[in-house]
Amino acid sequence: MVISMTGFGRAKSVSGTFSVNVEIKTVNHRFSEINIRMPRQLLKIEDKMKKILSQHIRRGRVEVYVSVDGEAMVSKKVLPDWKLMEEYVQFLLEAKSKFGIEGMITLQDLLNRTELLHIEESEEGNEEIEKLVLSAVEEAVMMLKQMRVAEGEELKRDLQSITAQIETNVTELQKFAPIVVQAFKDRLTKRIQEFVNGQLDETRILTEVAVFADKADINEEITRLRSHIQQFLQILDESEPIGRKLDFLVQEMNRETNTIGSKANDSNIAKKVVEIKSLLEKLKEQVQNIE
Known about the structure:
Structural class: alpha+beta
Shape: elongated
Low-confidence stretches: none
Helix content: 55-70%
């Protein structure tokens, strides 16, 4: 089954107190890589989130964004430094007495001294939020998967179209193969006639033609190329992730095509090789998007 590695999903879970928003996007990647951005107090459920994502996403770079709106998930506590405050008040009283300063020591005098009071914040986990997040992740990844499958169907049709064009060019190549050998025989016969004044050594000609035919024979490469094309089309219907298999087959098809181009000394074959390589490049670009 062809599944694209690019997609996007969004979901929102709401309770009486909190609202959770989850966005997931995926792009091409050789392996599976999941990155999650969310409030720190939710880090303890990161593994649970990754487990949900891994059930639906086998390959690709995954970016997850989680935001929480509602009552604060951080508790605050006032921690006064009583000892320092006592010393500070004692100092003020002694200063008033020593220098004859009039006035009263007020609470505001103490509050203005930031070193006397410390506000401590502590992050608290919340089961309600955690359930909302996991629910939103599940919904978002299902939406993402639907998009990846739909795009995968488009990719499949395009891949089938490209491989059909490659097959057509391979058929043309096979037609040219025997013509190349005959053309060589004709050229060789003409050259020998020029050198020996029409007295031909038929055995020599046949030997030279046989050697050339062996070197220029592209039937084996064409057979393998056709086999790779058939395997490629069959793999498109497999249920497991197929991107790496297809990528390997495209490399093999490209290798056989290069061999054909180097063996066959013929302009028609060279033209078909260029066309096939151009189609293989398109095939490679599309395969890079498949899970």
